[in-house]
């Protein structure tokens, strides 16, 4: 018995004939193609991706955004101002991508926030609370060494959609 068959048997799987395995794989593949459709999200209301990634994706009822940084969607430039202005722009960009995916800030399940300086945590929180005032999502917040384009903040989210 090949090693891979022994592993499957130890995991409680039944051994099947090669023909039955091909048929099952074909059925599974067909089912996956019909349910595993990933939507690529794109909106002019948020800055274009600055690398080989999309602004966000949706899969079924879930929306996943890429990290949104405080770039003006029209000029593509980092917004002027400190942490408050940059936080507000990053969250506006996040909101735009969520809307492009049929979601909203009210439907966010989890955010991950990156700050270039943990000293900006309180100021970031005050702006963040404007967008997630009640029933705030789960959140992780990290201080990191550097962020793209030298910005002070980046925010990504996972949300659900109708």
Can you tell me about this structure?
- The chain has 162 residues and is α+β, with helices and mostly antiparallel strands.
- It has 2 domains: 3-35, no CATH class; 38-160, RutC-like (60s Ribosomal Protein L30, Chain: A), CATH 3.30.1330.40.
- It is built from 4 helices and 6 strands, in the order ααβββαβαββ.
- The chain has helices spanning 3-10, 18-35, 83-100, 121-131; strands at 38-41, 56-59, 62-65, 108-115, 138-143, 153-160.
- Strands 1-2-3-6-4-5 form a 6-stranded mixed beta sheet, covered by helices on one side.
- Helix 4 links the parallel strand 4 (108-115) and strand 5.
- The chain is globular, with a radius of gyration of 21 Å.
- 26% of the residues are buried.
- Residues 1-16 and 26-34 have low confidence and may be disordered.
Order of strands in the sheet with the most strands?
1-2-3-6-4-5
Largest sheet: 6 strands, mixed
| Average predicted local confidence, pLDDT | 85
Q: Give the number of DSSP strands.
A: 6
- CATH topology descriptor of the largest domain: 60s Ribosomal Protein L30, Chain: A
Rg, rounded, reads: 21 Å
Q: Segments where pLDDT lies below 50 for 5+ residues?
A: 1-16, 26-34
- What is the fourth-level CATH superfamily of the largest domain? RutC-like
Helical coverage, percent range: 25-40%
N-to-C CA distance:
49 Å
Walk me through the topology.
Blueprint: H1 3-10, H2 18-35, E1 38-41, E2 56-59, E3 62-65, H3 83-100, E4 108-115, H4 121-131, E5 138-143, E6 153-160
Parallel strand pairs: 4-5
Antiparallel strand pairs: 1-2, 2-3, 3-6, 4-6
């Amino acid at each position: 018995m090949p090693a891979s068959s022994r592993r499957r048997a130890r995991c409680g799987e039944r051994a099947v004939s090669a023909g039955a395995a091909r048929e099952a794989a074909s059925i599974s593949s067909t089912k996956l193609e019909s349910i595993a459709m990933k939507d690529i999200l794109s909106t002019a209301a948020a800055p274009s991706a600055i690398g080989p990634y999309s602004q966000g994706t949706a899969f079924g009822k879930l929306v996943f955004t890429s990290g949104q940084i405080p770039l003006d969607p029209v000029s593509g430039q980092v917004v002027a101002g400190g942490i408050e202005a940059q936080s507000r722009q990053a969250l506006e960009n996040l909101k735009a991508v969520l809307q492009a995916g049929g979601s909203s800030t009210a439907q966010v399940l989890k955010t991950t926030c990156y700050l270039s300086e943990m000293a900006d945590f309180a100021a970031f929180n005050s702006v963040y609370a404007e967008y997630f005032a009640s029933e705030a999502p789960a959140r992780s917040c990290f201080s990191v060494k550097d962020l793209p384009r030298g910005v002070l903040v980046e925010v990504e989210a996972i949300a659900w959609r109708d």
